[in-house]
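From the thread on structure requests for the teaching lab: each student submitted one protein with a one-line request. Submission from student K.M.:

"Model Putative 3-methyladenine DNA glycosylase from Streptomyces bangladeshensis, tokens only."
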Amino acid sequence: MGMIAPPDRTPLPRAFFDRPVLEVAPDLLGRILVRTTPDGPIALRLTEVEAYDGQNDPGSHAYRGRTARNAVMFGPPGHVYVYFTYGMWHCMNLVCGPEGRASAVLLRAGEVIEGAELARKRRVSARNDKELAKGPARLATALGVDRALDGTDACTSGETPLRMLTGAPVPSDQVRSGPRTGVAGEGGNGDLHPWRFWIADDPTVSPYRAHVPRRRRG
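Reply posted by the TA:
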């Protein structure tokens, strides 16, 4: 008989993601994301996420319906949605809920637990390892995630560049919630959408920043 993989290294099943996004988001804390690269793997323990509920959520990319950009958000669950923002950065999400109903969890921050030397090469401005993936753009940069990985299945046990593992779920008394970072209008209202979730007192969690409108030049 073959060796049984330890529970924390087993892939998360697709059924984990085939649930309402507000159930999936806090349950992702403590889970492990593995990025396989030609130079070796990087493993990240998730410490901060944000939920986005599609056409029910004015803060979501899918609020106004399906487009070429957000198509992956409409399913199947367990796939990776990557978008490009501010003309500079990529951000990574995990698709949730039943196929055809757009929702996703933005991966905001994490602790690099394997492959830190590879992440450091991509995040040369990080002052220490706690900052390698402290924020959604930093997380994607540290892992080398871009639009080429949009649509990747993160629930397969086969060869894949991104895979979600069971990890160690965080006890509910250690989970905190609050307003989403940098979201404008109603979607950023913490009373209506306290949909950012993080591990209490974890040093890799990014600081909260309210939305600031960008000024037009000229």
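TA comment: Confidence is low (pLDDT under 50) at residues 1-7. Helices lie at 14-17, 21-27, 116-122, 136-143.
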